Amino acid sequence: MKKTIPISEELIAPCGMNCAICSRYLSYVNNLKRSQCIGCRPRNKRCSYLFKKCTGVNNTLKGNAAFCFECNQYPCKQINRMDDRYRINYKMSVKDNLEYINKMGIGKFIKEQYRKYCCSKCGGLISIHNGKCFKCDAITRLVEKYNRKY
Ligand SMILES: [Zn+2]
Prior knowledge:
Elements: H1 23-29, H2 40-43, H3 77-90, H4 94-104, H5 106-117
Helix pairs in contact: 4-5
The structure holds zinc ion.
Zinc ion binds near residues 122, 133 and 135.
């Protein structure tokens, strides 16, 4: 039987963030009494990390472009800042994610994400924010996973 990957395309945000591994999304799908979020695209709001400052002509965050790399202002100051924050704190690069999506396609990216962030104990998803599996509570130490080989 083919294993179902619990990451849908709409969970990949315009900035390259995989909402499926965000603590707030995992709290939502696992029905935890914590701050919850249904994901950036499903929420259909401008991202808090990009500080409502998306001024790209393609208006990525208004939905006219699927991903930030399609914007004429990419990489902008805001996405550079977010990329720094995630590389430093969470060992993940949204710009590298975007490059992978651009080169390999969204389907391959989702499979890669599941390989990287599935819990080795139960197959649930690990939070990028604390390395915790929200299904079985196992902790995975997230190492620098943004050095990809194509
Ligand atoms: Zn687990």
